[in-house]
Specification:
This protein is of the alpha+beta class. The protein contains three helices and nine strands; from the N terminus they run βββββββββααα.
Length: 169
Amino acid sequence: MYLRINIKSFRDIPESLTRIKLAEKMSGIVNKKEKWVILGKEEIALETLPTNYGGLRYYFLCPTCVSRRNILYYHTKNGEIGCRDCFNLKYPSLNRSKTDCAYYYKLAEKEAQKIDPSYVWDGRNNEYKFPDRPKNMHRDKYNRRKRKYTRYVKEGDRLWLAGVAQSFK
């Protein structure tokens, strides 16, 4: 398990020595003036670059590969800190494939959220309720989105059933 540490959480910290709390089990000390952060047992260097509009932009220097990063990851089991490349982490979207039913269910949810932004997918009860047509939306546009939604749900169901059938073979 990895805890994500973003440089943005350090943006509003004063220049002097400051104690911070990042998560329930992690705290640290920041010194922007001398450009370092202590997280867990590791000291991490900070690097700054001037921005075009004045001021400075802060970056972490990864303790493993010494590259400039906005986000570092803390390994909760062994306490190591490193970047995405050092831990060989991939983005969740790269782990999905078009042979996964969750991919199509997510697409269906996105299609419904174009009609109603508060829509949340709840496929557990097999009630795939598409939101009602908003008052000022053209019927053609609404029907087109509903057809796409239905197509994604059917494809997701087909792949889910194929996976269930495969598990019984």
